[in-house]
User: Fold this.
Amino acid sequence: MASREGRRNQHRLVPLAALINREMKNKKLEKPTLRFGCAAQAKKGEDYYLIRTDCERIPGNPSSAFSVFAVFDGHNGNAAAIFTRENLLNHVVGAMPCGIGRDDWLQALPRALVAGFVKTDKEFQRRGETSGTTATFVIIDGWTVTVASVGDSRCVLDTQGDAVANLTVDHRLEDNVEERERVTASGGEVGRLSICGGAEIGPLRCWPGGLCLSRSIGDTDVGEFIVPVPHVKQVKLSNVGGRLIIASDGIWDALSSNAAAKACRDLPAELAARQVVKEALQTRGLRDDTTCIVVDMIPPDNLVMPSTPPKKQNRLRALLCRIKSKGSGNKLSKKLSAVNIVEELFEEGSAMLAERLGADSSMKQSTSGLFICAVCQVDLIPSEGISVHAGSIFSTSSKPWQGPFLCVDCRNKKDAMEGKRTSGVRAV
Assistant:
């Protein structure tokens, strides 16, 4: 028996050289080659975008690099889009815990994105300007793609086969029943524009304000039921690769996700972005600002994206769908398990901060050892912090004295978004 057990253990042993070789292969696969392109046509001058390929999880360490691609579609002026482009990334990074490894960093990223979006909205609203913006914010770290979005700009994944999937959920009242119900439950009204009390025309809008969207950054002149809390989705691609199409509604009002993907297949990223804009303009004309970013995630050994992955390769590399949280956007987006080469890691679209900020197991602490506000990152003394769970419907399952904690200002913002009280921002 002893000799048999010894033989079993011997079979479990892996030579050191093999382990090193395996690590080298895994490290290589974690760094796809990115090729990207951007194209735009302006009508109002309210679309903006962000492309950063030099970000680092650990400052000064190039091996910790990640990339950011984002589209901001402003309305009622460009101030909110410009402010968000200049500040959102810093606020997201500032909400990340320090001194953690890559896996923990990726796991903490969805919550940091929520905090970053809310903080950006708070800071912009303090300026008293009335413009607003959508935001579709994409972070690529290795083969992992994390997308946070408010509004109706969209990010689409094309695997260069027959499967195209939305990584975002459109926050348009016309199409999103859940968001209509949330707005009305929070104190807003939903209806179409009425001409002199007569016939109703146009899309469904929130009142006061008349905004067609239920989520955005900015929009100080509408009710705070228009929230900046993003839908977040995180997926991991296999080493077959894939293409992301990130665009404002100037594209999506003219083209479906499938049509945009098919229009630019077999083209390099820069030409693909131009082709998507061209197809949109040919279909609908230049009625709105039109911006498109195309990002190709290419295996390091390949110079070009494969037009169609071999069927045998698809079967061998198919990954089981694993969803770590409730996917409120699942009804509105195609299940990525059908893509056959994508693993779903996280999806959540709730507008409730108590649910989105979660437990405090990895909350950031200040240098003084005191806790900080989970949203705005200011230091809190014990008597100042208010649990995000206190007085909420989640307090039955989460102790109200446990973190994460909010400062008084952020707690008021949270309650205002949920229709519990008004904050300093007045709707007119």
